[in-house]
Amino acid sequence: MRQLPPLSTLRAFEATARLGSVTRAGAELGRTHGAVSRQIRSLQEAAGCALFDKAGTGLRLNARGEALLRVVAEALDGLEGGWARLLEEARGPAVHVACSATFAMRWLVPRLGEFHQRHPGVLLRLSMTTAREVRFEGAALVIAWDRGSYPPADQARAILLGPVAVGPVCAPGYPVQVEAGRLRMAVRIAHEHTGRAWDGWAAESGRAAAWEEELRFPHTHLCIGAALAGLGVAVAERRLVAEDVAAGRLVAPCGFTTLPERWGAVPFSDSVETGAGREFVTWLRGALG
């Protein structure tokens, strides 16, 4: 027989530790402050030791609590992911994909009609990731070209999909000077959490960038939006701005430069090797390649 405390006490403990507040944990779990406090007290009594220390009017995890939180959070994540996969399988063939909001809005979603025409029985679920914090949320597949923040093992098993080309883009008429070894601009638009696009473009194109001021945004689609608004020069992957360039809303004064990186899909489930997952990866490779 398993020697475990009630799951409700572990959920109350994890939520309180993660949110830093019994009140916020209660709101998330749909329980009163008193009910959550009793669950935590029950868990501590069963453990025979305190898991939190008083910190002003709140609670702070102690060393034993931090050790338990790592175990409980991992277990709950596994349960949540397994339950989500079960629900998806019960609904029919499905694949859960994580990608950046920019890739989803500017490339993937506009092309999903084509995918569903070829595979009408396959359901697709999307989750968002960011350059600062990769959040898989139980996804079977994570799509990205800048995988520098991923663990080496995840980078190594990425399924390569297609080439990456980046270039500076700006609104028509925005003043830039293109020289043999330099691109001059008044304002450079940069990503707050990764400089790989600008750095990669400079390294591979042989041009340096010179600017007087810099604007920073936490998401690529905000950088592109700022360039569309005439606020400066952003650097973007060719596919993500292709429609804006074709329509004349953006110009690429230096064209686009191919990087060593490639668009890739990092698998986090065996489901990508068969059925719906394999069909989606095959379609994705053709569309990006």
From TrEMBL:
Single annotated GO MF: sequence-specific DNA binding
Record keywords: DNA-binding, Transcription, Transcription regulation
Matching SUPFAM superfamilies: Periplasmic binding protein-like II (SSF53850), Winged helix' DNA-binding domain (SSF46785)
Domain (HTH lysR-type): residue spans on this chain: 5-62
InterPro entries noted in UniProt: LysR-type_TF_proteobact-type, LysR_HTH_N, LysR_subst-bd, WH-like_DNA-bd_sf, WH_DNA-bd_sf
Gene Ontology process terms (BP): DNA-templated transcription
Family assignment from sequence similarity: Belongs to the LysR transcriptional regulatory family.
This protein's name: LysR family transcriptional regulator
